[in-house]
UniProtKB/TrEMBL annotation:
Organism: Tanacetum coccineum
Name of the protein: Uncharacterized protein
Length: 94
């Protein structure tokens, strides 16, 4: 078993599954289920599936949502292998 496969298989409760380049659909399903299992998972899931806020003046509720958005981004980034993360990290937008 390769190290990458070992990391992917070990995708546990402490981190989301690693992206398997050969099966994006399966990975994305696992990632969304992982996000939903976290505290405030519904809000994190909502951010992953929808666009983030862009208003300059945010209400208290929106500030709270932004914190959950940051958590959602972290969950996604933790599931990427280093080579893909490097490519994604250099991009300004999706």
């Amino acid at each position: 078993m390769s190290t990458q496969q070992g990391i992917y298989d070990a995708g546990s409760k402490n981190r989301p599954p690693m992206l398997n380049k050969d099966n994006y659909v399966l990975w994305s399903s696992h990632l969304l289920r992982y996000a939903k299992s976290k505290p405030n998972g519904k809000l994190i899931y909502n951010f992953i599936m929808n666009d983030p806020y862009t208003n300059d003046e945010l209400t208290e509720k929106e500030v709270k949502q932004m914190k959950f958005n940051d958590q959602a981004i972290q969950i996604i980034l933790m599931g990427l292998p280093e080579d893909i993360y490097a490519a994604v990290d250099s991009c300004g937008t999706a």
